[in-house]
Amino acid sequence: MTVMRKRFSSVCSSSSAEEDSASLFDSASFFAADPINEGEHPYASLLCCHRVQDSLLSSNSSFTGYRGILNWIIIFLVLTHAHLFLENFIQHGFLIDVKKVLEHLIEDNCNWPSVNLILAANMFALIALLLERAQDKGMLSPTNGHHLHLGNMGLLLLFPAAVIIHEPTISTGGAFFSLWFYTVLGMKLYSYQETNRWYRQATDAEIGKNVSITQKASTEHLTLQDLYYFLLAPTLCYQRDFPCTPKVRVNKLLPRLLEMVIVIQIMVGIVQQWIEPIFQRSENFFSSMDITMRVEHLVELVAPTHFLWLLFFFLSHSYLNICAELLRFGDRHFYGDWWNATTLIIFWKNWNIPFQKWCHRHVYTRLVEKNVSPSRAELLVFLMSAALCEYMIALPLHSCRLWIFLMMVFELLVAVFLGGYFQGNYGNGLVWLCLLLGPPLAMTTYFHNHYISCHHHPQSSSSPLTSDHRLPGRVFLQPH
User: Fold this and answer.
1) Least-confidence region, from 240-254, 320-334, 367-381, 451-465
2) DSSP secondary structure letters along 290-350
3) CA spacing 20 to 30 A to 41: which of 27, 168, 200, 340?
4) The pLDDT of residue 387 is above 90
5) C-alpha–C-alpha distance, residues 318 and 307, integer Å
6) What's 396's DSSP letter?
7) CA nearest to 237, candidates 278, 187, 282
8) What angle separates helix 403-418 from helix 344-351, to the nearest 10 degrees?
9) How many CA atoms lie within 13 A of 129 on its CB side?
10) Nearest 5°: CA angle at 409, between 406 and 413?
11) Transmembrane segments in this chain: where (predicted)?
């Protein structure tokens, strides 16, 4: 009996080793018996049915087939939010009205200050082109040309801010679009002048070249066509001879246009049908609420705000691809797989590739060249981007609370102090948690205060920056 037990034990250990190297779901290897073992005992494969292995959901398991669980989560989320939408329609009725959005984008009078503001931006672009031509012909020294460029871009940044603050007839939508347009233009013109300066330095460094030929080749790129192609292209970094596709592909263009129309309609529906009723139930500014009401208000806004943020990303994807297709712009790497980011730093590097390239090329590299440590240069670039996000939201709404800036700084602290403890799937979960409770939610609180200022006129706030007479015209969310 002892000998037989040892024999079965050896058979079980050998069969267990073989099963470890074979697939668990291979029916042939799972049910078929080893001929050698069958020779010792015909029921050895049936008697030995256990082996050393971990549960599939344990951390030691190498199992990765979670597709079924992902499908269950998607279906569950769809059904849950379908119930919320149905409850919302029953309680509030149908609130979606695209005409209100169009009314908000149209100015209060026939002067159209936002349109005139955008048209005036051509003046700054033409000045940049003239300064580059003057430097290329030797009429202007590189130092004086650089200073004049900086003065031109300083006026470019101050001009829209002054108009938005002091022009009462400009709408909120017009102010947002104008400020976004001028900010992008300023970054493009900075890259334009700095890249052309690098080209001139490379040309001057060449030895044994014909000077007239190099000057002619340089002058060929300093044209209105080259400048405006760059200004319209979906990139912030200038270079000569952008990579281009052979032709405009209509089969790629039409789906993107359809996507933009559908996504805009969904975004308008979420704002008017979901977010506006939440704003209507509040009568105080977010900063004047007690802690319980503040938390409840934020919890209600998490889901719609996050959906809007995701839809805005997809809208940007469609818009940038439309611009690239119309201009035959070849570099379509506008974002990386940020949804798989395991750290916030990886997310920031993959979320907006054109902006990340511009910061690395024109800010980070220049700081490192001036003997700033790489870590400090990265910190300065991050703080600059956080301040820019705050500026883009706070100025059109005439309210500066620093909520977006502080939220991004808080995310930086989370990335620094908790990044080492959350890795892999846990790190990706932390990234998504920060996206749910991060800057998009802080941005929504700005719009909440703007809505309350224009509709309820609470007496609790005496700040001149948030009083009703300083706010422009209509708001995006108008109650029925």
Assistant:
1) 451-465
2) -HHHHHHHHHHHHHHHHHHHHHHHHHHHHHHHHHHHHTTB--------GGG-SSHHHHHHH
3) 27
4) yes
5) 17
6) T
7) 187
8) 130
9) 18
10) 135
11) 69-86, 112-131, 147-166, 172-190, 257-275, 307-327, 379-397, 403-422, 429-447
